[in-house]
What does this fold into?
Amino acid sequence: MATEVKVPTLGESITEATLGAWLKQPGDAVALDEPIASLETDKVAIEVPAPAAGTMGDHLVKEGDTIAVGAVIAHIDTAAAAPAAAKAPPPSTPVNPKGAGENIEPKEAPEGAPAEEESPHLTLSPAVRRIVLEHHLDPSKIKGTGKDGRLTKDDVLAAAEAPKAGSPAEAGVQAPEANAPAAPQQAQAPTKAWTPASAGERKEERVRMTRLRQTIAKRLKEAQNNAAILTTFNDVDMSAVMDARAKYKDLFEKKHGIRLGFMGFFVKAVALAAQDVPAVNASIEGDEIVYHDYLDVSVAVSAPHGLVVPVVRDAQAMTFAEIEKKIADFGKRAKDGTLTLDEMQGGTFTISNGGVFGSLLSTPIINPPQSAVLGMHRIEERPVVRDGQIVARPMMYLALSYDHRLIDGREAVTFLVRMKEALEDPTRLLIDL
It folds into this structure.
């Protein structure tokens, strides 16, 4: 008996996707809900779970093919599921496949403790499992940098990009730091490791643009063609925010279980400034201007392949702790590849923090139908004049790119001035000034 594998519903207005990779080959054993293929949509890459347990049948489409929602892409032979389960060793029997690393063999767990705690790096998230399968890696030979030693996508990607012979991953050496900045997914194509060429040898490699990359390129070009984009700048003395974080970070973390970051201050400052300049949080639809009485902030967060932009909804009504928890959750799930399409749709205003990558100044591009985007940058000490004296202060440049069809220069400048005032005197955020 065969069960059809269909392209699942991908979200509102999404009718087709591109088959990125097959994670299971014909003849492979498949468990219920196990990822068997990855799809690329205009917005995000997602996995197709197995609708039944059994044996993978023939692939009906090839990698790179465009397929419609609901289309049948493969079959799973469910008749093979029962015999396969019968042949499987009992759970209590340690299994050490030939050639597997020493850590693959489960150790006897203490009474009452799950075996998973003994081998946390073998508990793979769907996104990590996909990369392991794609690159034919042995997860037992890669040292994890995640919580309790679990493998992250950064660990596996680093192992995949390392030289196959004598690589750190092969030798069990720890992968590069998981906190190293990732290359923006929405700003560049998939990268390849640089291989030095022989003397006089010149090489080129052609890599097909992903569906997501093509969509990003199209949307950004449309933004330039359709909107009258202009950028205005200001600088902010971050002393007060940094002092507040230093003074309250321990109490804040103890009470709320989350670190007090910079983003909470900036989201609250945007919400405050948008009250005075509502056009910055508005959009153009046809010949009408749509004003929103809510602030849904698209916040760029780092993922293994680059940046994704989930939305913090109703940010104007959230506390510092709620904002920090939401963004931390987005960041964690971005690395795990578990953000949903709904969480990355909508948004009335965008904040992009290029400072985490070392950016001093930039002119961010708006994300239609939004009319403005705020660019944050790195904090560095610069000489400024205070009370007639030249002193060093931790300064940050802010950039606001906006659609001049809707937002006048005076409004854009006023918006950044309101943000500057709030950040340099955070008390304003508490008393709504």
